[in-house]
Design goal:
Low-confidence stretches: 419-431
Radius of gyration: 22 Å
Largest sheet: 8 strands, mixed
Number of strands: 14
Shape: globular
Order of helices and strands: EHEEEHEHEHHEHEHEHEHEHEHEHEHHHH
Length: 441
Amino acid sequence: MSGRQLNRVAVLSLHTSPLAQPGVGDAGGMNVYVLQSAKELAKRGVEVEIFTRATSSSDEPLSEAAPGVWVRNIVAGPFEGLDKQDLPTQLCAFAAGVLREEARHDAGYYDLVHSHYWLSGQVGWLARDRWGVPLVHTAHTLAAVKNASLAAGDSPEPAARQIGEQQVVAEADRLIANTSEEAKQLIEIYGATPESIDVVAPGADLTRYRPGDKSAARSEFGIDPRETVVAFVGRIQPLKAPDVLLRAAAEVVARDPSLPLRILVVGGPSGSGLDRPDSLIDLAEVLGISARVTFLPPQPSERLVQIYRAADVVAVPSYNESFGLVAIEAQASGTPVIAADVGGLGVAVRSGETGVLVQGHRTADWATALANMVTDRDALAAMASRAPIHAADFSWEHTAEGLLGSYRAAQFHFDRHEAPSEFSPRRTRGLSKLRRAGVTA
């Protein structure tokens, strides 16, 4: 391995701050990943500086998120009213802020760049070349994969994003995939070389998310202890498919009106869901289950664990998930999960043991699976007992160790090989795949 020291990592998270409340706006699992993995890296002696875009005039230029973890808020574009689709216009401004910060220090201040999401990867690519350090990239989601499984009425990701992702895949020294399935997608769709990919699963804060008193949790939120509770936690947008849960719940109730079913929806509108922020409320009314649905705003982690504990089942009906942190957090809290069998959810949930995976998004299939779960109390209890044991394999400690291994591999190869040229086999192979798919650079 490289003799180069790993003292300080520049982490780039352009489009959402790791300090933002998950479930609000575009903040979600990636925010949790960035912050929690940074904390664990810091515990291992690696200082982490997270660069993100300032979204308020009150944002301090520099704040300490935890010992050894700093968040730098870079002014790039207006603080408010900038949609995620507009963020590519601010790449230059954000990149300038990142490079200026490094220029204040002696050469070699940062030992490595780790970018999250394709927008950050574009800036990371520039920083890598400017600073002479390796670039590690985590995509979190991929445009080609999302577009292949769009929810009805949802907007496809633009071709510009696919091209941008392809460029980052070609330039990064190491790629981190959440699952082996994501690694396969990077290879087959984006032309990544297998030896450049490390599979590192995300985790959960197992000191916080753990089984607890269900009655106390229900009391905290005013939930009737006699009800059967199914919770949805996440951003309210077509991709996350909370409507699938509501339609299934209505079907379950139609089959058995005596079932005391309560649906708990925790989250706020995001993405294309902002166009119709009240769409779920309207849908519940149309389905005739408004009295059985409770809506709550996004919750901080200390209250979110109580949501998980209060629920009998947590639903993750997404059309695409690179992993699905909610599924792990719920299981760690002792609650079985019903999830769509997409992306990383097949890894996060052991179907039949800690939850149930549903093929597709047909209402009848979801209603049957949900009804079977909540009416077989013995099977549900067995799943609940096994769920925390399964979740114990997914901790942020494990994630940090995997990241460190990838960082060291990136340093080793960076010190011994030139960065990919404009006409490298890896880049041209990936671009050819995109052209065949109808995406042109």
